[in-house]
Write a structure and sequence with these properties.
The complex is a heterodimer of chains A (306) and B (397). Helix content of chain A is 36%, strand content 29%. In chain A, the strands form three sheets. A five-stranded mixed beta barrel of chain A has the order 1-2-3-5-4. Chain B has 397 residues and is α/β, with parallel strands linked by helices. Classes of the chains: A alpha/beta (306), B alpha/beta (397).
Amino acid sequence: MSTPSIAHRALKTRNQKNQSGTIISYTTITQSQSHTIALIELEDGSRVLGQIVCHSEQNMLSATALIGQRVMPRMALSSITEQGLRIYDISYEVIIQKKIDTFDESVFPRYILAITGPSGVGKSTVSKLLGTVCSHSMTRVPILTTRHPKEGDDGEYTYVSQKEFEKLHKEGKLAAYTDIPSNSEERRYGYVVEDLERIWENGKVPVVVTEMHLLQGLAQHFGRRSILSFGLLPPGKSRRAMLSSLLFRLRKRGRETEAQIRERLKHAVQDLQFFKERAELFDHILVNEDLDTLIKTFQKHALETV
Amino acid sequence: MSPTANILSWYNLTSNLYYRYQSSELTHVQRDIFLIGSGQTRFGEWWHMSLQDLVQKAMDTSIENAPCTALDIDMVITANMLGELTNNQAHVGALASALLPHKPPALRIEAACASGSVALHTACAFLESERAETILVLGVEKMTDVSSEQITRALMGASDNEKDQVPGLTFPGIFGLIAKRYMYEYGLKREELNIVSARHHENASKNPNAQFRSPIAPESVETSPLVADPLHMLDCSPISDGAAACILSTKYKSPFQLRASTLANDAVSITDRESITSFSATKEALEKALKEACIRREDIATIEHHDCFSIAAVINMEDLGFADKGKGIECYTKPSSHTFNASGGLKACGHPVGATGIKQLIDVRKQLEHSQSRYGLAHNFGGACATCCVHILEYTV
């Protein structure tokens, strides 16, 4: 139950809640929607109750025993009042602590160049161009997928069956994976750890094309610091303009049916939202207006980092 | 006088009073208070009965069973938690008083799920101060008139409105947090917890006033729908309608005498507690009650305790001192010389919030009479044990 006045008073406690902490206990409440709520001990010793948010199922599954896990505060939409007021509150996200192998940074900084953006924004084109123009320093990483080959695919995918994909996942050979639920097609994508490591061994930077789950998965597997992360936006001043330019591009490339296009646009809305919500996962946000300028900008940022 | 000196003298005064309260004459019930009559409706889903009908029925039965007449009642104390939210009915005290021919003075007590026992505690205070000689204490709740969503939200009123009300959190959720932590700290297994509800159902099959009189298999607890992980539907007490009434008197005598009535409190929000796997209010109320009645824990033959969720039953066993920390479940798995929730408890008898505390005393009375034993105890708490009231009843043959 939240009224504007209660929400206003809650603002006062927000700063206090905005700390990382440790989970004391948690429960998942099954009602019309299920919520995971935890009792959290914050850094200053105080305790709060808060919702646990998870952007990817992957997080939740690998963290079945949450007691004792560290959590970070995140701002998330908590409810919409009858008056239409959107109430945002602090929720907490589980950080899975991952041991990162130490390596000699003076020899070669192992990092990944990741390009994230909605379907049709030009991620594949950019990654392909980077792989060609900067072939001496960058290599595209093949994407593991369960979907069937399509006309217009240009060697960026490695096709596997559902079973093989599942097997690799169970053996822990995938650095990140995502399921894209869909009515019109079955799609799972992932990156194989070995592929990335091979590229590093050759002294090159792997270039990956990601969406929200893959990016988070990679950040968890290798650590956020090992990713030079780019967000790619379609041109347009408003969200509407961006979506319409995406629609134009998707139709023009003619790889998907109209139903699939509509579904991808639906995902695109979430993707655009993700840029805002998880700004900390991106180093640079670029607009794909002119390909030449874009590639130059990429090279500049990538070289600076190297 | 300087402000510091002022504060110091105030501190001395209050700590003195506190010391006197702790150590003094006030550690026993000041008058001989007898339970002279009692009555209740069967707990359940009573669509054909209104809040008032329930009150009337419990009241009438209790007066019929008592040696006094309706006109001897000096005062009515009603316990009700949710009248405003579930029946759009506040003013339940006056409502009950108006059902008696002489319309005696009446008041209403609210202390969440502990309303019933706190009403008994209040009645004791009036009797001890000789403001009244015979008091009718009545608890009532009519919960099935509203949707389960509304009732869930209304019950959250027993928690801290600003600290505990995370969107989506419910009372089963709060006890889910407690259960999860308890399992983590003491290694309690899910299949062990199943036994609690199964035992309560088994006991209720012999109680004609219970809401659920059919035994259940322990495995069915685990397979019932998940409510708040790790708690399933059959771990939770139900939503019920019902009323219960007791007549307490210093003027009329009976073989049942109230030996102790104690109240203790704790932080309302579980975020303000150091431990969520033990309830300090239970410990405090029990300790005071044993002192007040001048008996030992072992003297108590029959216990009705507040098992709003199966995990609460396990924690109660430890806080009431019948089991060591982490071993509460043994009171259910191993044979014991005490009887626990022989009525079926909140789980199987039903839990019409305001009526529960009073119903417990009625059940203790019945069990003492049945087993011909001397002492019985009723333990009732509100919220996540932010209010706890313990009563000890003595049966003198």
